[in-house]
Amino acid sequence: MKTKIKITNTSFFQKLIEQSKSIYARILLYFISFIEAIFFPIPVDPLLAVLVLNNKEKYIKLSIFCTLASVIGGIAGWLLGYFIGEEIEELLTIIPWIKNDSFNDVKIAFDQHGILLIFLGAFTPLPYKIISVTSGVFHVNILVFFVMSLLGRGLRFFLVSLIVKNLGDKGIYLLKKHTFIISSLFGLIVIIMYLIFI
User: Fold this and answer.
1) All residues at 6 or more sequence positions from 86 whose CB lies less than 8 Å from its CB, including other chains
2) Which parts of 55-168 fold into alpha helices (H)?
C-alpha cells in the first residue's frame, strides 16, 4: 500500500508520489541526483525520501544508485571547472564586489583543506555543485574529490534512507523540519575532528 504524503502543492510531485513504485520515478531520482551535483538548485533528498517510503525493501539500491549518480554528476562538475577555470577566474575579476584577494583566499582554502571542504559540501547543506565546480577550477586531485564525494554523498543519502525506512512518515517529518540542524551539527563534529587529528 502506497503511503500518501503531501510534500508540495504541485500536481507534478503528487503524481510522482503516486507513481513512486515505477521505474520511471527511480530514473528521475537518479537523473536529478546527477544534475543537482552540477547546477540543479533543488536537493534530491525529498525525492529519495518519498521513494524509500514507498519502496522500503529497495532502500539500499535506491541509496547506492542515488549516491553514484550524484558523484558522477560531481565529477562532471569537476571537469567543467577544470576546463573553464580560467574563464571563470576572468569573469570574477570584472565583478566589482569580488576582490582578487577573495579568489586567492578560496584557492588557499582548497589547497590546505580541500578534503574537508569536499566532504562538507557532499554531506552538509553547503551547495555540493559549487564545491564540485570549484574543486575543478583549483585542480583538486580528482581521486581525492571522488573518494570524499563518495563518502559524503553516501553517508547523507543512506542516512536519509535509514531514517525514512525505520520511522516512516515520522522520518519524513523529521527530515523536513530538522535536516539542516542535523547535518550542520554532524558537519561541525567533522570539522572539530579534522582540526584535532589532521
Assistant:
1) none
2) 59-93, 100-123, 128-137, 142-167
Residues 6+ apart with CB under 8 A from 156: 45, 122, 123, 183
For residue 184, the surrounding DSSP H or E stretch is helix 169-197
pLDDT, residue 92, reads 63
- Give every CB contact of residue 149 below 8 A, 6+ residues apart in sequence: 70, 71, 74, 75, 118, 122, 128, 132
Q: Which string of b and e fits 12-49 if b means at least 16 CB within 10 Å?
A: eeeebbeebeeeebbebbbebbbbbbbeeeebbbbbbb
In this predicted structure, the answer to whether residue 190 has a pLDDT above a threshold of 90 is no
Closest CA to 191 of 123, 116, 141, 133: 116
What was the pLDDT predicted at 107? Answer: 85
- Provide the residue ranges of all domains of the chain, joining segments of one domain with +: 23-197
If you search the block for the grid coordinates 583538486, which residue do you land on?
A: 140
> What's the gap between Cα 8 and its chain centre?
21
Buried b (16+ CB within 10 A) or exposed e, 75-99: bbbbebbbeebeebeeeeeeeeeee
Q: How confident is the model at residue 128 (pLDDT cuts 50, 70, 90)?
A: very high
Q: How far apart are CA 185 and CA 166, in angstroms?
A: 21
